[in-house]
Design brief:
The chain is an alpha/beta fold. The protein has helices at about 30-35, 40-60, 80-105, 120-135, 150-165, 175-180, 230-240, and strands at about 20-25, 65-75, 105-110, 140-145, 195, 215-220. The protein has a single domain, classed as Undecaprenyl pyrophosphate synthetase, CATH 3.40.1180. The structure holds farnesyl diphosphate. Farnesyl diphosphate binds near residues 27, 48, 52 and 91.
Length: about 250
Amino acid sequence: MSEIPARPHMDPRIDPARLPNHIAIIMDGNGRWAERHGLTRAEGHEAGARGVRLAIEGCREMGIRCLTLYAFSTENWRRSKTEVNVLFRLMSKYIRKEVAEIHKNNIRVRLLGEMDRLPVRAAADLRYCLDLTAGNTAMDVCVALNYGSRTEIARAARLLSEEVADGRLRPEQVDEAAIAARLYAPDHSEVDLLVRTSGELRLSNFLLWQLSYAEIVVTPTLWPDFDKQCLCDAIVEYQLRARRFGGRP
Ligand code: FPP
């Protein structure tokens, strides 16, 4: 990632006063992109990794406070062993290549998901990145890795029941705020804008709690073709929506 320019380009259609605070992206379509270009799925994922860089850079330039990326779901373990290995090798390569720039740009990387099942090398590279950037303050990039939303909510319920069982919490204290506080990133428990690439109309077990009031933008663009202009287009669409949170003006 290049260093953030002092005067970042902002699409003139975007109102800087009404930016989404938290954008989440389901990065879909690497395989179809590869097929269309006569390439292997691995090459599709490689192209997808370049899109990750653009998305982080674009959000950082605009001053978005939090970007959550769906990198690997608990369901993705069902893919072939070869593809799973490709994805984790790519993540290690990406982290090693980008971590210094990410850190220089004052970005904190956080993990949503469980470290336990990750291949040793990917886990070590990720740990290094999480620790190095832990004190950064300009923006959070949350990587959903070995992530499943139902697992996340079940984990919150388990933590709460343990606290109730040993007397640290009373049952009547179990409310929405108590659940939100036990998600992987309690301070990012609301998503403002969800973007899904490649035209699929599914949530795929992603941030089910956090997406309750999110605006959803689905684009037919395949993830490797999703550039900064596509990101701006999604934000413009978000700003055209009237958000009522269930109420009426
Ligand atoms: C969907 O494409 C994408 C993924 C399974 C994971 C996203 C991974 C990347 C963008 C690569 C690198 C990630 C990082 C964090 C460096 P698909 O294979 O489901 O596409 P298809 O539906 O067209 O087959």
